[in-house]
Amino acid sequence: MRGRVLLVAVCLTALAGCGEKDAPPAPARQATALASGPRLVGGGVPAFESQLHALRGTPVVVNQWASWCGPCRYEFPFFRALAQRYRGRVAFLGVDSQDGRGAAQEFLRQNPIPYPSFFDPSVKIARVFKGGFAWPTTAYYSRSGTLLETHSGTYASQAKLEADIRDIALGGRP
Predict the structure, then answer these.
(1) Quick one: pLDDT at residue 172?
(2) Do strands 91-97 and 147-152 pair parallel, antiparallel, or not at all (unpaired)?
(3) Where are the beta strands (DSSP E) in the chain?
(4) Which residues of the chain, if any, have pLDDT below 50?
(5) How far apart are CA 73 and CA 97, in angstroms?
(6) How far apart are CA 63 and CA 53, in angstroms?
């Protein structure tokens, strides 16, 4: 219990230093956070890395997107559907890069996803997973938190995205 309190204190201190009000959900409360609908969270790179660390033990798929990006809009429903299908087995995070907060929030209201997105106007978060060079970009993290692969560009179909989730994030398991 004492370790958890310390971890929460460290995370809150990092977030407070960034001047952002929103904090990412803790993994133990992920179901509650997902039920609350789409969220755009702040905190920059420290908050994103803290969330990845908190999700250790679960593979993570990160979708870098922007409200102005046509290809991102095209594949957004794929991520929504697969986040629901793989709920409890794979964690999903969004990274809204090089976008305006208002436009991103409106996009999320119109296109809800069951996981949070980090607000990344300067593309610093995207650079953590070798993103920020093409929109959209998808990153895959192992259960241990290791970046496995970064896929630049649009997925042509939900089936192709799902195949990569199975093959990369889940290591070939159905």
Answers:
(1) 76
(2) unpaired
(3) 40-41, 60-65, 91-97, 117-120, 137-141, 147-152
(4) 1-36
(5) 14
(6) 17
CA distance 95 to 127: 11
Which pair of structure tokens corresponds to residue 130?
């070798």
* Cα gap 68→100, rounded to integer Å: 9
Instruction: Give the CA distances from residue 109 to residues 36, 103, 105, in Å, rounded to whole numbers and listed in that order.
Output: 12, 10, 6
What is d(CA 7, CA 133) in angstroms, rounded to the nearest whole number?
33
| Sequence letter at residue 120 | D
Q: Rounded to an integer, what distance in angstroms lies between the CA atom of residue 129 and that of residue 51?
A: 14
Question: How far is it, in rounded angstroms, from Cα 137 to Cα 134?
Answer: 6
Q: What's the pLDDT score for residue 8? A: 37
Contact present, 168 and 140 (Cβ < 8 Å) = yes
Residues 6+ away with beta carbon under 8 Å from 97: 64, 65, 66, 120, 121, 123, 125, 126, 131, 132, 135
pLDDT digits (tens, 9 = 90+) for 9-53: 334 333 333 333 343 443 443 443 444 456 899 999 999 999 999
Q: Would you state the pLDDT for residue 173?
A: 63
Round to whole Å and give the CA distance between 31 and 25. 9
Tokens of 54: 């908190």
pLDDT at 16: 36
List the structure tokens of 52. 């990845």
